[in-house]
Design goal:
The complex is a heterodimer of chains A (about 475) and B (about 325).
Chain A (H helix, E strand, L loop, with lengths): L5 H17 L3 H17 L3 H23 L3 H38 L17 H17 L7 H9 L1 H4 L7 H4 L14 H32 L6 H32 L17 H5 L4 H12 L9 H19 L3 H20 L2 H5 L2 H20 L3 H11 L10 H15 L2 H12 L3 H17 L15
Chain B lengths: L2 H4 L7 H19 L3 H7 L4 H18 L3 H9 L45 E2 L2 E6 L6 H9 L5 E6 L13 H12 L3 E5 L8 E2 L5 E2 L4 H19 L5 E5 L7 H18 L6 E4 L2 H4 L8 E4 L2 E4 L10 H18 E2 L1
Parallel strand pairs in B: 1-11, 2-3, 2-4, 4-7, 7-8
Antiparallel strand pairs in B: 5-6, 9-10
The chains are: A mainly alpha (about 475), B alpha/beta (about 325).
């Protein structure tokens, strides 16, 4: 079920009312919210619920075993097996096709072909997110950062519908404590919730989908048909689109969770304001960045073993982070590109900061990130090469329209402006009377709804990951 | 502590949240209650669609009795990205074939097939690629192949639509609008993934899929769309049949769709080319994920068991271009 759809518009008010009606009776509320979340998930494919249930039970079993054992070696082994099981599940569903086609092609060249059958396997929506959350649960309990939860709490944590399909990746240690007592019905961030849902809808439906339809999809689909001006426009338009699409989804997810009484971590903080790669990853998909840092980079050794060791760990982390986005060489290279960017920053150390003006660092970072997005958006390396060729092939501009330019400028400009006034405005809106915000949100829904084509709202980009 | 605690945003109650939701739902019913039914038409058949339809009935009843829904539609009409539809929907006169025996015309014969001289080839300048989700990524593959020749390819797929489901998009009107807007030399059509909806028969009664009555009613609609696309012979139409899907129930519908395409194209064989994808992807109407491509087993289908992946779409594009090259130069 997608957020900006009529199905969800029917589903959510019912869940909201019942959730608060049952909140004080936790033995009723907990099964209710699990059932509601599984209904939400089953709308994609009921069979996927079996997988989600299996992941929940498997990881809960591991957590119990870890908690009951005093033997550190045994705890390590159980954690390793549970994490391997989660990664294996992710691998089979997400990367099987990639390995039996693309990787096999490479291995075939050196007579080492894979003996696996050719199959098409459906990718369960959100699998990358809930397997990662399952990993944080097991590892956090092993590290002592989170207490083992009951099976029903673990089921809520992994299936809670606002974050189920595209994050943010909420850690067990952040979410499970919120389940220990009923949410306080007298402390609900209604204004912030409604404002975030409205903002998310505008970002996704009015901006991201329009940019995709008008510029990005045509140019990235057939770059051969366009020249330099349109290719440049499409590159910047995609930067604006992916930000609005993903942060729009996150805004809606955080807003819905707030209305239900839950708090999710921040996932974006004006990423196009970044003045370096490290800064970018502190602002873009922040919950993935910290997952990669805490559950991959640091366990690999982090920066504790000298320069080259650190660079290796950075590169491994970013390449795997790229691969997490999808089973394609373009994602691997996109991760490697950011890895090289981070390594370069490390290698040059403070010299860049001292010698380069801030605006130049911002300009370079922004354009390098946009270049990376071309790789990310290209379906394959051939298309990437073709697109690069169009960037330097002068010709007419056919897609430059005022609404498109305005949308790109607003999306980038809002992030570059000093943050204080924007934050103050946001705070003032969030403190408006809920009834007033409700009327505003209803009209936002009507207005953005009018911009939806007859074939409906396209899925969020991150749903495919 | 979250920013919502720091900034004192939690100053409201659950009652406020519920009240806000009641206001939102109430306003949406008043201003857009009538559109819930059409949203249901867009959904796949099943419980979800039934539930949305059930909710849509009373909200439509409320919206119909107030002028707000209509006013909202008029005020926001300018924001819609949908293109204007043309005349002559499926309900219009002529959607159902007349009773007298139609004469067979020369257009019914492909000259090459009967050994007659082929007409001179025309230069190909504009191609419209359309259909439902099946038309993607075929549209992109064709556009990429034709771009180096300077051929303009208009990609206009309408996802989730079906010729048997005019509640979402009436292909009778949509095709007329497309031809008026684009006036292409050739139209490539790939549609059939969302068929099987009940269709009114000649006496107005709904016919359920997939008997011969239904096939006839469906073929009449296909023929109407083909007739619009061929523009009296000015435009060549390349209509792809649908390769057998994995699901058996869906395969039954597709079998009917393909039979209807063949029958519908009969009067204009020289202008409407049926590109049969079944022998290419599913010989013997037997579903398979992978086929032999240049001596290597290669996956050509998406995991849903219906659509072609990029490789498959590339193979379909080759088949289409082979037919196009018989009629055009580029």
């Amino acid at each position: 079920m997608l957020f900006p759809t009529i199905e969800f518009a029917i589903f959510f008010p019912i869940v909201l009312v019942l959730s608060w009606a049952l909140m004080s009776r936790q033995p009723l509320w907990k099964p209710f919210i699990v059932v509601a979340s599984y209904v939400f998930y089953a709308a994609a494919d009921p069979l996927f619920c079996l997988l989600l249930g299996g992941i929940t039970v498997g990881n809960q079993l591991a957590v119990w075993l870890i908690h009951r054992s005093d033997d550190e070696r045994r705890r390590k082994w159980i954690t390793g097996i549970a994490v391997a099981g989660d990664l294996l599940t992710l691998g089979v569903f997400k990367y099987y096709g990639f390995f039996v086609t693309d990787v096999d092609e490479v291995l075939d060249a050196v007579s080492l072909g894979l003996p696996f059958p050719l199959l098409t396997i459906a990718l369960p929506i959100g699998i990358s997110f809930f397997t990662f959350q399952a990993i944080t649960y097991v590892v956090d309990v092993k590290r002592g950062d989170a207490e083992p939860a009951s099976l029903i709490d673990a089921a809520i944590y992994l299936s809670f519908f606002p974050h189920l399909v595209a994050g943010p990746i909420v850690r067990a240690s952040e979410f499970l404590p919120q389940l220990q007592a009923p949410r306080d019905p007298n402390r609900v961030a209604v204004g912030a919730g409604l404002a975030l849902v409205a903002l998310g809808l505008i970002k996704k439906v009015a901006i991201a989908d329009t940019l995709a339809r008008e510029v990005v999809d045509p140019v990235f689909g057939v770059p051969e048909a366009y020249f330099t001006p349109d290719a440049i426009l499409a590159a910047y338009a995609y930067a604006a689109q992916i930000y609005c699409d993903f942060s729009g989804y996150t805004d809606i997810a955080i807003g819905l969770a707030l209305l239900l009484g839950f708090v999710f971590p921040q996932n974006f903080n004006s990423p196009y304001r970044a003045t370096g790669f490290r800064d970018f990853w502190r602002r873009w998909h922040m919950t993935l960045s910290r997952f990669l840092r805490d559950y991959l980079y640091i366990p690999l050794g982090g920066s504790r073993g000298g320069r080259l060791f650190t660079y290796r760990n950075l590169l491994i982390t970013m390449v795997l982070g790229g691969l997490w986005h999808g089973a394609a060489w373009t994602f691997v290279l996109w991760g490697a590109f950011h890895g090289v960017g981070l390594v370069s920053e490390h290698a040059l150390g403070g010299r860049i900061g001292r010698q380069t003006p801030a605006w130049l660092r911002w300009f370079a970072t922004f354009n390098l990130v946009c270049f990376g997005w071309i790789l990310f958006r290209s379906q394959d390396l051939d298309l990437f090469g073709t697109f690069l060729g169009r960037l330097v092939d002068p010709g007419p501009a056919t897609l430059w329209t005022v609404p498109v330019l305005l949308a790109i400028l607003v999306v980038i400009g809002m992030q570059v402006l000093p943050p204080r006034p924007v934050e103050r405005l946001q705070l003032r809106i969030e403190r408006l009377r809920p009834a007033l915000l409700a009327v505003a949100l209803a009209f936002v829904i009507l207005l953005v709804g009018a911009t939806v084509p007859s074939q409906g709202v396209p899925p969020f980009i991150y749903f495919q990951f | 502590m979250s920013r919502f605690d720091r900034e004192g945003a939690r100053g409201y109650t659950a009652r406020d949240a519920v009240k806000a939701m009641v206001i939102i739902v109430g306003l949406l019913i008043l201003f857009a209650g009538g559109s819930i039914g059409s949203s249901a038409a867009r959904m796949d058949q099943g419980i979800g669609r039934d539930l949305v339809s059930a909710v849509g009935e009373p909200t439509e009843w409320v919206a119909d009795r107030l002028p707000l829904d209509e006013a909202e539609s008029e005020l926001t009409a300018g924001l819609s990205p949908d293109q204007e539809l043309g005349e002559g929907g499926f309900d219009a006169a002529g959607a159902v074939a007349g009773a007298r025996i139609p004469p067979i015309t020369p257009e019914a014969f492909d000259p090459v097939a009967i050994g007659a001289p082929a007409p001179p080839k025309r230069p190909l300048e504009t191609v419209l690629v359309t259909g439902d989700s099946l038309a993607t990524p075929l549209d992109t593959e064709l556009a990429r192949r034709l771009a180096p020749d300077g051929v303009r390819v208009i990609r206009d797929p309408h996802l989730a639509t079906g010729i048997s489901n005019p509640d979402l998009v009436d292909w009778g009107r949509l095709s007329a609008g497309q031809m008026r807007r684009d006036d292409p030399d050739a139209v490539v059509v790939f549609i059939g993934a969302n068929e099987g909806y009940a269709i009114p028969g000649p006496d107005g009664e709904e016919i359920e899929c997939c008997g011969t009555d239904y096939a006839a009613a469906y073929a009449n609609r296909v023929r109407q769309v083909m007739d619009t696309f061929r523009q009296g012979g000015e435009t060549k139409v390349y209509w792809l049949t649908v390769m057998t899907p994995r699901d058996r129930d869906a395969a039954m519908v597709i079998k009917m769709v393909n039979a209807a395409i063949e029958v519908a194209a009969e009067p204009w064989r020289s202008q409407v080319r049926v590109v049969d994808t079944v022998p290419i992807f599913t010989p013997g109407e037997r579903y398979r994920d992978a086929i032999d491509v240049d001596g290597t087993e290669t996956i050509v289908r998406e995991s849903d068991g219906i659509h072609l992946n990029e490789t498959g779409a590339g193979i379909a594009a080759d088949a289409v271009l082979e037919r196009i090259d018989q009629d055009f130069t580029r």
